[in-house]
User: What shape does this take?
Amino acid sequence: MVAGETTKLLTQMRRGAIEYCVLALLRDHDRYGFDLTRTLADADGLVTSEGTVYPLLSRLRQDGLVETFWQESPQGPPRRYYRLTKDGRLALEAFMVQWRRFRDAVDTLMTEGDTR
Amino acid sequence: MTKTDLDGLIDNYLRRLDAALGPLPTARRQQLLTEITEHLHEARSALPDQTEAAVRDLLDRVGQPEDIAAEALADQSDPRRRWSTRRLAVGLIGLAVLLGLGAALALNFIGGGPSSTKTYNPSATTVTGVDVPNVIGMSTVQAGNELRASGMAVTTAEQPSTAVPTNVVISQAPAAGSRVARGSVVTLTVSSGPPSSTATSTIPNIGSTPVPNGIYVDGSQGTPHYFISLTNTTGGGLSGSVDFLYQDGQTSVVFTFEGTTQNAVATLHPTNIPQNGGSASQNPATVPSAISATLGPASISLGECTSYLHFTQSLAQCGFAYSSQGVR
Assistant: This one.
């Protein structure tokens, strides 16, 4: 596979999973934008830049999976926090179940290929 | 490099971003600009050293405006590309089932073992009825697709709402989970946005707050209140207006100010003005679609221009959006 195709493949795989990665980051606690986007951007190869996460967040809000609220900050102005809605939590749970099956199935076949 | 030059770097970046986001609808563009502006302030305040290199590095991390715009426009320009997460989940389930089957078959084939392939019953739907899915909170289009895919017909009725964004389903009949005959009609009540109103409101007097004037916005019960604090100074005259936008499940508030903004700085912050606290409280049903306020001989006065909202000092007019979602 040539390099260009690898990039394209990565883009497609990312596109499918990234929104759920955002949901997963919000599973245990609410986060403000800077914290959320920096954490995502620090994960290898998931997003091209911190800024590109905001259109994703906008989409998730539009889908009713994430909502925002304000919270006082220990320093500086209040922060806009993002949190999962009930639908968001359900979508994440459904994804996680399917993702594990998907991953295991692919891994099984890949490993099978290795040992033959 | 002075602080002002660093501000300039950020201003310049935001201008590029604004230009790159040009093709987006205004409300969405402003929402993204606001959130990224907030991000920049947050990132900047986290910098140990306010140097040019540090600010440039920070902007690099946020990314090229063109990349951000491309991401935002990707689903805007081609709705088909925009998978709803619900659909994606269904798609992935399908894919996982297929892969699971494939893996099982492959293993059987490789191992030569006895077939243990499960039989899948792809649908539990009986011929006698179908279950009505929950489509509340979906867009009209999404809801229609969902229902039609489940074998139902759809009619919609519009109803004004300040809490639910335009074209989003408020309620449905029959309710989710009901079993109905295939082909039954589901009636969706869809938000037509806030009730139209041309009412204007003068700046309410927020009695207990330490500022002489303010504009506040009350989206609905429990929603954080917003106000702009304005301090009368020796600045020039200034007038402003507030528009409400509803999108993304959000109440966005667009403030537009005209007049002298020399040395003007502003803050807009949610503050928990007590509910039912007299004049500071406003019934959600009466939130006007626009508030005009003439601020008289006042300038918007506050600590630092870039601390929260962005005022471009050199421009006579500037607009920005602020959004929030009600606490439910």
In short: Helices of chain A lie at 3-25, 33-42, 53-62, 86-115. The longest strand of chain A covers residues 66-71. Chain A is about 65% helix and 10% strand.
